[in-house]
Amino acid sequence: MMTENAQFVEQAKIAWTLPSVTPSSSKPKYVSLKNYERVTAVIKAVNATTVTGSAITLLQATDINNANSDEKAVAFTSAYRTLDVAANGDALTAFTVSSNTFTTDATNSKNSIYVIEITPDMLDIANGFDCVRVGAGNATATSIDVEMILWPAKYGMTSPPTAEAN
Question: Tell me, what's the pLDDT at 67?
Fold first, then answer.
């Protein structure tokens, strides 16, 4: 549990797993939940014109480098979004995800934010899957940016452990 007696940076880790890019064979980095209770994926989409959205999925593996080539999907049925930041600000609303995938909005010249909450019980922990990443499908005229916020740290430390631990 987070506490108000410590700073956010002492209790959480922010990993920038996909810098702003138009997805085309892009592969956001994995983060490890070994030292954290949960992770929140924050996906920002900036649309130009003649946009096709990016298909967003969650993937899991047994190590952050996926050296075992064991990547598989993570089941999830809900997420949060604001489809027009200029009009709606930070007002996130829940939406239903079908088949563990959603596509970012394709409205020209709109900026959107998507948030997915991921807990260890969503992963195949019994078989050693404790690393997770966002999958971003190819898109046109939209830039996608992904940050993973790991929180709270399982062990109290002045500086939380790396999100890149195997």
Answer: 66
